[in-house]
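Hi R.,

Here's the chain you asked about this morning:
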Amino acid sequence: MDNRTKGIIATVAAVLLCGCPGLFLCLFGAITAFGGGTFNLGSQSGNIPTTYGYVFLCLSLIFILIPIGVGFFTLRNKPAAPVTPSNNEPPAASM
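And here is the predicted structure, written out as tokens:
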């Protein structure tokens, strides 16, 4: 398996394990930050503080940036080594 295939597999795994939960956490954080976060657990109900929403938004940005970084570092084209000229040419004949 070559490096390109390994990079694609790593990127897909990072998207599934970090990117998708990051998007859902971003949605939940935005709803909570703007005052729409309530919960109802049987006889207990209440509002989720908006600061939790801001924390969820920050965490979601980290989760979303992980697959972007993995994709960038595994799928980028690495620069080729510079070609050095060889000095195997015979010396010029003097007249």
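One quick note: The chain has a mean pLDDT of 83.

Cheers,
M.
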